[in-house]
From TrEMBL:
Keywords: Aminotransferase, Pyridoxal phosphate, Transferase. The keyword Transferase applies. The lineage of its organism: Bacteria, Fusobacteriati, Fusobacteriota, Fusobacteriia, Fusobacteriales. Pfam families: Aminotran_5. Residues 66-321 form the Aminotransferase class V domain. SUPFAM superfamilies: PLP-dependent transferases (SSF53383). One of its GO terms (biological process) is glycine biosynthetic process, by transamination of glyoxylate. It comes from the Bacteria. This is Aminotransferase class V. Its cofactor is pyridoxal 5'-phosphate. InterPro entries: Aminotrans_V_dom (IPR000192), PyrdxlP-dep_Trfase (IPR015424), PyrdxlP-dep_Trfase_major (IPR015421), PyrdxlP-dep_Trfase_small (IPR015422), SP_NH2Trfase/AEP_transaminase (IPR024169). One of its GO terms (molecular function) is alanine-glyoxylate transaminase activity. Substrate binds at R333. Belongs to the class-V pyridoxal-phosphate-dependent aminotransferase family.
Length: 377
């Protein structure tokens, strides 16, 4: 199997040192006490990325596990939950709430813009009896980055606990869990941190622990029960055997993160990328609130999206993301995310994209690649 050059909106390319870390000899993570310290230290380092001193846990399962676990652990029969929705992941949170007996109430935002704070404020003035709210920081299918700081601030004003999906923003955008008072903040290994898929990590605030401890009904299920993780370190007990190789890989990926100014790198690559896209005459999907981790580009008239991605893969060995749901066939998504947020990655994807668009008859107003290089200079 030939591995394509990944510029998808996650999973992202995995560096050699991360792959090698996963090849280390394995201990028994249940019995080896050193592993408990290793795991705990990694949790603390992840906490530094998302600026929290609260508890962090790494669970064995892809990002979706974290989303479901948060809803499973918080929701009781009949609980009203505010679902802040201006995208596919935003809306999807409501399904998890329903699965665990909750009643999602949707605050619908315009999908081409970040959540409008005064609209949310007006909504909350009329209705604010919610146990918790779900928010997506970067809704990856549309690339919209929501104003998380402001959203959390207003939710906290009404005493509403916050569950935040920051899976595709953590590491590439600022996330300040303690300052913004996020109760559960969710991330995953395969996005900006550029480790392979398989792990989800999350912060859990004191309020979040209390919500779980004060439930009237027990949490349904085991794998999605966050409460069983509370005293793993003191008890030297993991709910299930930890995937030690995945965690070794994530540890190296996190060290890579701290070896440079990763957020700054994402800012520079993303802004140069967007500028060259727009100045070439292409259009970005959202009107504002761009995430520095992904660019979502509208397919120009006369361009066949399927053929475009097929040619990128077959002729350039380059894999980018298409879209699903309401955006299917209408946009392409390029993840300048993690290892994708490098000058050479940006150059290669723009060069290949330009060639394939021109072959299908698109005439760029400015060369995508030349412009990208000039902006970076
Ligand atoms: C990637 C991602 C997840 C994890 O889900 P998968 O689609 O299974 O990778 C969750 N939330 C957001 C916003 C994501 O970008």
């Amino acid at each position: 199997m030939k591995t394509p050059f990944l510029m998808t909106a996650g999973p992202t390319r995995v560096r050699e040192n991360v792959r090698l870390a996963r090849a280390k000899e394995c201990s028994n993570p249940d019995l080896d006490l050193n592993f408990y310290d290793f795991y705990r230290n990694l949790c603390i380092k992840i906490g530094k990325i998302i600026e929290t001193k609260q508890d962090v846990r790494i669970l064995s399962g892809e990002g979706i596990l974290g989303l479901e676990a948060a809803c499973a652990s918080f929701t009781e029969q009949g609980d009203r939950v505010l679902v802040v929705d201006n995208g596919i992941f935003g809306e999807g949170f409501g399904d998890f709430v329903k699965m665990y007996g909750g009643k999602p109430v949707y605050f619908k935002g315009d999908r081409e813009h970040g959540i409008n704070i005064s609209d949310l404020e007006n909504f909350l003035i009329k209705d604010n009896e919610f146990k918790y709210a779900t928010i997506v920081h970067c809704d990856t299918p549309s690339g919209v980055l929501n104003p998380l700081r402001e959203i959390c601030k207003i939710l906290k004003k009404y005493g509403i606990a916050t569950v935040v999906d920051a899976v595709s923003s953590i590491g590439g955008e600022e996330v300040k869990v303690d300052e913004w008072e996020i109760d559960v903040c969710l991330g995953a290994s395969q996005k900006v941190l550029s480790a392979p898929p398989g792990l989800t990590f999350l912060s859990i605030s004191d309020t979040a622990w209390k919500i779980m401890e004060n439930r009237e009904s027990p949490i349904a299920g085991f794998y999605c029960n966050l409460l069983i993780w509370k005293d793993y370190y003191e008890k030297k007990w993991f709910p299930y055997t930890m995937p030690i190789s995945d965690i070794e890989g994530l540890n190296t990926a996190v060290d890579n993160y701290f070896s440079e100014n990763t957020i700054k790198r994402h800012q520079i690559i993303a802004s140069s990328f967007r500028k060259s896209i727009v100045e070439a005459g292409l259009e970005l999907y959202t009107k504002d609130s761009y995430s520095n981790t992904v660019s979502v580009i509208k397919i120009p008239d006369g361009i066949d999206e399927k053929k475009l991605r097929k040619n990128l893969l077959e002729k350039h060995n380059l894999m980018i993301s298409g879209a699903f749901g309401y955006l299917e066939g209408k946009v392409i998504r390029i993840g300048h995310m993690g290892e994708g947020a490098r000058e050479y990655s940006g150059f290669y994807v723009l060069k290949s994209l330009e060639k394939e668009l021109m072959d299908q008859g698109f005439k760029p107003k400015k060369s995508l690649t030349e412009n990208f290089i000039n902006i970076l200079k």
